[in-house]
Amino acid sequence: MMNVGGHERKSFSDLNTFQVHPRTKPNRVLMVIYMCAILALLYHHLLYLIRSISLPSLSLFFADLVFAFMWVTSQPFRWRPIRRKVYPENLSRTVDDKDLPPLDVFICTADPYKEPPMEVVNTVLSVLAFDYPSDKISVYVSDDGGSQMTLFAMMEGSRFAKRTTTTATDDQLSCSQQEFQKMKILYEQMKARVELVMERGYVEDDMITTEKEREAFIKWKRGFSRQDHPVVVQVILESNKDIDISGESLPNLIYLSREKRKKFHHNFKAGALNVLIRVSAIMTNAPIVLSLDCDMFCNDPQAPRQALCHLLDPIEGSKIAFVQFPQRYRGINSSDIYNNELKRPFKINAEGLDGLGVVNYVGTGPFINRKAFYGGPLTQTNVNTFPGFNNDKIFDRNSINSRLVLEEAERVAGCKYEQGTNWGLAMGFRYGSLVEDFFTGYRMQCEGWQGVFCDPQTPAFLGDFPISLNDTLIQVKRWSVGLIEVGFSKYCPFTFGTRRHSLLMDMAYGFDSVWPL
Ligand SMILES: O=c1ccn([C@@H]2O[C@H](COP(=O)(O)OP(=O)(O)O[C@H]3O[C@H](CO)[C@@H](O)[C@H](O)[C@H]3O)[C@@H](O)[C@H]2O)c(=O)[nH]1
Ligand SMILES: [Mn+2]
To answer: Which atom of ligand 1 is nearest to the CA of 438?
Structure first.
C-alpha cells in the first residue's frame, strides 16, 4: 500500500494503482442529507393524501416516487468512485517482449457510404502502428456492408503499410523529414484511388493490380448483394511473409464479410462479432481481443501495453473479463454545448462502477479476455464442444492462408452455423438487445467476471460523434430501445442480477436499463 499526496492508493502490483475519489466521504454525507429530504417529502405527500385524495395530488406523489427511485438507484455511481493509473514502463519486469500475449483486433464496419472505407483504413493503420510486437497482432475487418470497395480500400491500405514503416522511433522521426514527405505522397495516392472507386461504386479491372486480387473480387460478380451473399474471407497481409520497407514483419490483416441470407436473422453487430470470435479462433486464437468501431482510431500506440497492466496483474488479472477505455471524441470544442462528450456515462459513472468492480462495456475500446466469451471464470467447460475450437491438431496456424484454415473459417462464418448452439445465448455477444455491448458486459459480470476502467490522460482511442440532429436522435433512440430491452427482459438487473452480484451493482445496472423511461 502506498500513500501518495495524502490519499490512499492501494497497489496490487507495480503495474497499476488506484485511488478512491477524494470527494467520496463528503458525497456520502450529502447522500444521507438528500435521502432525509426525499423521505420527508414523501411523508408530506402521504399525510396530504390521507386527508384528501385527488387526481393531481396522487399524480404528484407518483411523480416524486419515480424521481426518488431514480435518485436512489443512481447513487451506486457515487458510492466509491475510483481513478486508476497504469505503469506500462514496468511491464518488461513482468513479461519479456517475446512472451507478450498475441492480440486479435476486431474492426466492424457496416456501410461504405456512412462509414467511408478511408476511415476504416485509417483505423486499421492506427492499429498496425501499435507499440507491440507486430507478429503478435492480427487485425480482422468485419464488413457487414459486403462491399468490394471496402475490400479494395483494405488492399490499398496494406500496400501503403508495405511501402512505409510503422516502427517509427523518436530518432527515426526526427531524422526523416524526407521519409515523412514520401509517406504523405503515398497516402494521398492511396486516398485518391479509394475515392475514385467510391465514386464509381465498384472496383473496375483497371484498379486491380495482381491476379490474387482479381480472384478476390470474383465473388461480387455473381448476384452478390448486401443482404444476400456468401462468406468472403481474404487474407490481405500475412505476418512473417509480408514486410514493410524497414524489413519488419507486418501484422496479419484479414477481411471478412460473413454470409448473409434473407431467411436468416443477422443479429446486427453482435452477430458480426460472434463470427469474428469464431473465425479468429480458427485463424489465430489470441487470448486477448480488442474490439473497435471503424470510426474509432487508436490515438496512443501504448494502449495494448496499458491494458496489459491490468490483464497481466498477478492477482487480479485472471478475474478480469475486459479493460474498457472510454469512448472519446475528436473535434469537440471546449465548451461542448451539446454534451457530445457524454462525460456522465463514459467517465463519471464509469469511475463509479469501477469502484464496485464492474464497468459498462461500451462497444468500442475494450481489451477482452477471450475466455470471457465462453462462459464464467468457473464454467469454461463448453469451449471444446464446438468443432474446430481449440482443436489445435488439425490446424497449422503458421499459415492462416492455407486451404484448410480458410475452409473452416468460411464454415464458422456461415448463417447456419449458430443454429442449435449457445452462441448469442450463453456464449459470445448476447442477442436480444440493440445495445449488445451493455447487455454482453452485464451478462459477463453476472457470471462472475470483473471489468476495469482505464482512462489515461492521453486518449487511447478517438472517434467521431454524430454531427446532425437526425443522426443524434437515431443513435439516442437505438440506445434507449436497447437499454429498455434489457430492463424488460428476464435479465432485468433488479431481479435477475440480485442472486449473482452485489445490490449496488444491480442498482447501477438497473438504473441504466430503465433510464430512458
Ligand atoms: O449490423 C451491424 C450494425 C453495426 N455494425 C457496426 O457497429 C458499429 C457501431 O454501430 P453504429 O451504427 O456506429 O452505432 P453507435 O451508436 O455509434 O455505436 C455505439 O453503440 C453501439 C451499440 O451499443 C456499440 O456497438 C458501439 O460500439 C458504440 O460505439 C459500427 O462500427 C458499425 O459498422 C455492424 O458491424 N453490423
Ligand atoms: Mn458509431
So the answer is: 23
Phi-psi region of 385 (alpha: psi -120 to 50; beta: other; left: phi over 0): alpha
Are 127 and 38 contained in the same domain? no
Domain span holding position 396: 102-286+387-421
CA distances from 509 to 84, 152, 364, 378, 443 (A): 21, 42, 19, 23, 11
Q: What angle do CA 290, 293, 296 make, to 5 degrees?
A: 95
Regarding whether 156 and 270 lie in a shared domain, the answer is yes
- Which ligand is nearest to the Cα of residue 437, counting in written order? 1
Residues involved in catalysis? 144, 437
Atom of ligand 1 nearest to the CA of 364: 27
Phi, psi (5° rounding) for residue 365?
Answer: 95, 15
- Is the pLDDT at 103 greater than 70? The verdict is yes
Summarised one tens digit per residue, pLDDT across range 337-385 is 667 777 788 889 999 999 998 899 999 999 999 999 988 887 765 554 4
- What distance in Å separates the CA atoms of residue 270 and residue 443, rounded to the nearest whole number? 14
The structural domain count of the chain equals 2
The verdict on residue 312 lying in a domain is no
Q: Tell me whether residue 138 is in a domain.
A: yes
- The per-residue pLDDT for range 406-440, each reduced to its tens digit, is 998 999 999 999 988 889 998 899 999 999 999 99
Between CA 394 and CA 407 the distance in angstroms is 12
**Position 189, amino acid:** Q
Contacts of 353 (CB under 8 A, 6+ apart): 76, 77, 359, 360, 451, 453, 505, 508
Cα of first residue to Cα of last residue in the chain, in angstroms, is 43
Instruction: Mark whether 220 and 120 lie in a shared domain.
Output: yes
Residue 209 is assigned to a structural domain of this protein: yes
Spatial CA neighbour of 127 closest among 304, 335, 385, 368: 304
Are 109 and 65 within one domain? Answer: no
- Residues written for the chain: 517
DSSP SS3 for 12? strand
Give the residues surrounding ligand 1 with Cβ less than 6 Å away.
108-110, 115, 142, 144, 268-269, 272, 293-294, 363-364, 435-437, 475, 482
- The Cβ of residue 429 has, within 10 Å, a number of other Cβ atoms equal to 26
- Which residues are documented as binding site for Mn(2+)? 269, 293
Nine-digit cell string for 3? 500513500
- State in Å: Cα 295 to ligand 2 middle: 7
